[in-house]
Predict the structure.
Amino acid sequence: MFRKASFLLLIVGLGLMSCSKDPISDLSNEESLVYITNHDQSANFSQYKTFSIVDSVLIVENQRAGTSLDDIDRAMLQRLITNMQNMGYKYVSRTQNPDVGINVSWITNTYLNVVSQPLSSYYGGYWGGYGYGYPSYYSYYETSESSWLVSMLDFKNPQTTPSGKTFNVIWDAQIRGSAIGDQSLIDKMADSIFGQSEYLKIK
Amino acid sequence: MKRIIIIALFLAGVIPALAQDKPRLYTIASPFERYTHYLATVRYMGAVPMGSFKDNYIDKSSFQNASISIEWVLRNTPFSVGGEIGSTYFEKRVPRALYDSEDGTISAVQTRTVSQYPVELFANYLFLPRNSQVQPYVQVSSGASILDYTIYYGTLAAQDQKVRFKYGVGAGSRFLFKKDGTFGVDVRVKYDGTAYKFDYIDKGISSVSGSIGLFYRWW
């Protein structure tokens, strides 16, 4: 009798464990976005007056790269210009020696993941692992994540290295989340990364 | 006539005896009194976070908790011992806010979660005779918690999975639906503590839960 009961207990227990929760299923597109900004602590932003911006968005996908300028890219570039101007920088063409340059890229990383399971996932994954000659099961899954990367380069103080001139990144912003391709949120994204970077303000 | 008298005398001897036998049946203690018997309980719980877990991580009550236990109600002692497994889940949504870290400033809507699958052994002290219809008890338990700490920034997750020591103290009471019956209701209030330290959680996970359950006993 007790054996039967303990078996029942085991079944119910595994049943409890297999209830998976999805706590973020109710997030709206806007709420799903994550803005990560960072800046060079030693940079003195008041020394910069003018800026320029790339004419199209750099697309980086794993090792390949290209450029793109469709509606969403254009909207992003426009809004970044507006925000830089609101911060007090003057928009100039790239031929007029801007103090800082804004780079915009869309980065996609694809990963191949492997999970090994000592027993089939039917058992909840917590059992086994003692190596009684059970075969190992592997499953593969591919994940891919895209993000916007906006960076500000210091054209005013180039570093000279043997291979030529390089420019320091003095500020960058990553926009991540499942809704980064939502064009209606582009303005919000651009405003947010500047909104949380008050130190950029020069006026 | 003589025969009738004999029958009457016979019945006079037998009927009182039958009548006396019946109450004697009741004097035999119930098997639940005489034997070690089994008791299984299914509980549904509401839980309130406590202490630094509440202050630093999640202060929202949870109603996504359940457990099942099985125990031996021991013969000739006021104790019962058994095992309990369950599932508890705490979650809290934090509106968009800025978080500073060495990687920069992060702006995100946070979704904080902790789920636990406690596996425990427990001992109950029973205050009343083992077959009484109302059975108050106190409980101590300890075991392991298979826990999962997942914090979401937007849709990005940081996760930590561990197995950690946990313990609990509780008090409750069982109510049999009918005297000497097999089904009943169980209510319990229990404090649970899990030793855990990660990210926002610095002094373990503690909570107080109130549960209502249904139990079945057999021998």
Chain A has one domain: 33-122+134-200. The longest strand of chain A covers residues 137-161.
